[in-house]
Amino acid sequence: MKIAIFNEDLLGAVTGDRITDISKVTNWDRNDPHASFLKLMAHYDEWKENIEQEIASGVSYPLNGVTLKCPVPGAGKIWAAPVNYLKHQEEMNHQFNNAPRTIEELSLFLKSPQSLSGPTDPIILPFPERRTDHEAELGYIVGKKAKNVKAREAKDYIFGYFALLDISIRGNEERTWRKSFDTFTPIGPWIVTEDEIKNPNDLAISLWVNDELRQSGSTKYLIYDCYKCFELACDHMTLHPGDIIATGTPEGVGPIREGDRVKISIEQIGEFTVDVTI
């Protein structure tokens, strides 16, 4: 199922080119979407049949006539994977000579949850004179509390997947600082629930800046796949429902500037396009 938040914080399910308001059958409170979203994840399995009935008979709207919002209304934390594709390591060493290690030695880093934005929100450059890069990634949201969960069990704790842009200022500061500015983690266009994705470790990822294809990769080349990233994130640490994991970017990373339009597309997930402003 494709779950979205749209217009005035309504909850929707996307089917084809239409979106159905499923707020009523999920006890959705648009005045408190964060608490409502946590409740949705906790009760999704028992509510799924009612949601599907609402999709079949409820009020729906053309998808191109609504405004899609950030599909995760407030994350607790964002764990992100550095240098998780070998070809990305190669390009960073070629350009900056700054990637001697991969995720196997670096582990994960945190991004501020305040950097989250939606699939129709612009990326705002805080320092337009500095190089700021796009990084196309597969992201997912934790659906159940987890600690010391092994990779082989991780899929049972993932609620769903989405496309994610990890926007990064280049420089010598800590990764967390350079990647945590407002609007530096656009996600969307919706959440595709885990049961819809047969193998998240074999999905094509593409990114364009304006009409130029910059990134064309696949999650099958991840060094630590989606499930291994999950294991790493909850190794002696607790993941909570609503936490996000970003799995890293393939090669093709490059700069963005004011006036650019950035489009990300992930197989079986969907696509969205955002403007770059200052």
UniProtKB/TrEMBL annotation:
Q: Which residues form the Fumarylacetoacetase-like C-terminal domain?
A: 77-276
One annotated GO molecular function is: hydrolase activity
What are the transmembrane regions? none
| GO terms (BP aspect) | small molecule metabolic process
Write one Pfam family the protein is assigned to.
FAA_hydrolase
InterPro entries reported for this sequence? FAH (IPR051121), Fumarylacetoacetase-like_C (IPR011234), Fumarylacetoacetase_C_sf (IPR036663)
Its keywords, alphabetically, are: Hydrolase, Metal-binding
Per the record, the domain of life is Bacteria
Which family is annotated?
Belongs to the FAH family.
Q: What is this protein called?
A: Fumarylacetoacetate (FAA) hydrolase
Q: Which organism is it from?
A: Heyndrickxia coagulans (Weizmannia coagulans)
